[in-house]
Amino acid sequence: MAELQLKSVEKTYGGGFKAVHGIDLTVAEGEFMVLVGPSGCAKSTTLRMIAGLETITGGEIRIGDRLVNDVVPGKRGIAMVFQNYALYPHMKVRSNLSFGLRLKRRPKQEIAGATGDVSRVLEIEELLERLPKQLSGGQAQRVAVGRALIKQPEVFLFDEPLSNLDAKLRASMRVRITDLHKRLRAEGRPATVVYVTHDQVEAMTMGDRICVMREGHIMQVADPTTLYQRPANAFVAGFIGMPEMNLVDAVLTTQDVPHLTVGDQTISIETGLADRLSLTEGPVKLGIRPQHLQLLTPGSDNALQGEVTAVEFLGHEINVHLRAADADFVAVVPSDHLDAMPRRGDRVAVKPTGAKVHLFDRYSEENISLG
Hints:
24% of the residues lie in helices and 33% in strands. The protein has 371 residues and is an alpha+beta fold. It has two domains: 4-234, P-loop containing nucleotide triphosphate hydrolases (Rossmann fold, 3-Layer(aba) Sandwich); 235-361, CATH 2.40.50.140.
């Protein structure tokens, strides 16, 4: 395996459209890096540039100590798993797995041994004599992963490999792929992985680190916990987390008693939050995760007063949608914390839990509350 480095990498198309804006990213040897972001953020374009399927128009891509800008895909030391599996329909699973080694004219005994090893690791031994049309979606995806694994590449590239599977199978495959990565690391064969997805659940549960992208820019690279607890900007804060973070316009004042004005209402700021601020006053975006928003009785002190607009009962918890201070909020409340289910039209008050609040500059969208 090898370290992967992107240095000031750009992609500009013929019409002058710039899809990737000078990004810098290092993926350590054996690391599982996830590229995530909304459709059109250039995450797949970035992956294709790493693979050599898209030319770069600026910067450098290095795999290990090699500059691979002008190296053809087959000689980059990469293996790619696609969204549509890309299995050869006329070949049985055994032949699909071994095809890359046969192209390299490896000895038959080596091919047979590698095929057996990979099929055992992925638990597909019983599928070796089947054609792709005889496989379920999950089985086909495991074969596609096996075909990449058998090549023992320097870098594995995954392009939204689970998007064609149903929810239950996606969850199962997430576990299989991450377990495989951990097993290879434990066996002394660490796999360097770049995994593209638009699904934040995949990103948060699979990645050692996550690279959040927006319109061809990298917004933040960090481990899942850091992204959730210390988002660098409002975009990352709103993209990571389900339901998404409540982001509303407010005005910050730190003179005398630090407080926020939201619409026509005011709430004071906890000391812990006030001490972290890098801005003393002005327009901001207030960010509160739904899980950190308390639901209180109407008229409660230092809380925003509002009205319930919708209720979603999810069994273990309830999503309460409400309108307060001319802004929309969602509060996630554990079912066993409520004596009675809120109803649409009920008057309520809401308040952040302690200092678990983020403030973002209204214009730059940078997090000013990280300290």
